[in-house]
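Worked example 3. Consider a protein that binds adenosine-5'-diphosphate.
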Amino acid sequence: MAQIQIQNLSKVYKGGVKAVDNVNVEVKDKEFMVLVGPSGCGKSTTLRMVAGLEDISEGKIMINDRLVNDVPAKDRDIAMVFQNYALYPHMTVFENMAFGLKLKKYPKQEIERRVHEATEILGINRLIGRRPRQLSGGERQRVALGRAIVRKPKVFLFDEPLSNLDAKMRVQMRTEIHKLRLRLQTTFIYVTHDQTEALTLGDRVMVMKDGKVQQCADPMTIYDKPANKFVAGFIGSPPINLMEGRIIKKERKYYFDEGKFKVRIVDEMRKVVAPYAGKEVTFGIRAEDIYDKLFVSEASPDNTIRAVCEVVEPLGSEVYLYLNTGKNSFIARVGAHNRPDVNRDMDLVFDMSKVHFFDRDTEKTII
Ligand code: ADP
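Given these inputs, the predicted complex is written out as structure tokens:
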């Protein structure tokens, strides 16, 4: 079992780059924690400090209540899997997987047992005699995973392990990593820039930007209740539609006025938007919360807007509509059979119970 506490963790590289800025998180025993964010936000640096591959500038890292700041990487009982596999080219799959155990002077039989068990889990028995150059990218990544598994570490650290794979293989390996974690029942910290990987794999997802934690929560909370405009925009594909505008109050009702359209804010949101009456805000609505009026029964002037449909993009199971209000472009994700005319006005219905508002100055979520 292993639980990891990260307290007030910061990293300043030589030259003054503050790569990690006061990160606090507790990764629970057997939890799968994903660190996600754009390139350069400090994910790898955080992970490398947990691994012991990078000095800590400030703060503490504890593994099972033991302070490990000054414990060398090899003594932390951690296995790390990298993007570039880091396999030894002159060794076979078996030798690559056995290498760490040999160094630690494990008995031959035990090494064979563990390697066999790992190749069984990963479905790579038949590759055992091959060298890395005789393997596909996906197979190499399995070997890299195998090398981590045989050590039976307390904690697995993954740094963008799927980034070098093609799109199809990435999806396949994602499922395998999911199965692996169910089987291994250990603690994982997984770094990725891919929000889909983060949402599908994580028990919890920690979103980072500029070295700081923006939000740390379970995937559905991150998606449905983003803490700020950055998280809302980073998580979700296609990205959430964001539009600038103003909240107005008329006859005790509140509206969002974009300039080209006006929609009524539902009564449940009255209390939180009231202080913003008359003020500029950012409005957010996800593509799946917008409907072609022809296909909904709850349309009313309060939730319906007019926009030009510029592009219709059929994706098989659904259709993306690229729309324009005359002021803002936005995307709607509608049913597979929707085929509105291109370059014509159309009426769209917003599910106003699902929309978000963000403070223009702080970018924090209002609702
Ligand atoms: P991520 O993993 O999110 O892409 P990193 O943790 O690799 O981000 O990097 C965070 C920041 O620290 C970036 O601005 C990066 O340029 C900087 N950085 C990373 N490694 C070093 C280093 N060895 N020396 C100086 N700056 C670094």
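Take a moment to read the result before moving on. The pocket of adenosine-5'-diphosphate is lined by residues 13, 15, 17, 19, 37, 39-45 (CB under 6 Å). The longest strand covers residues 304-314.
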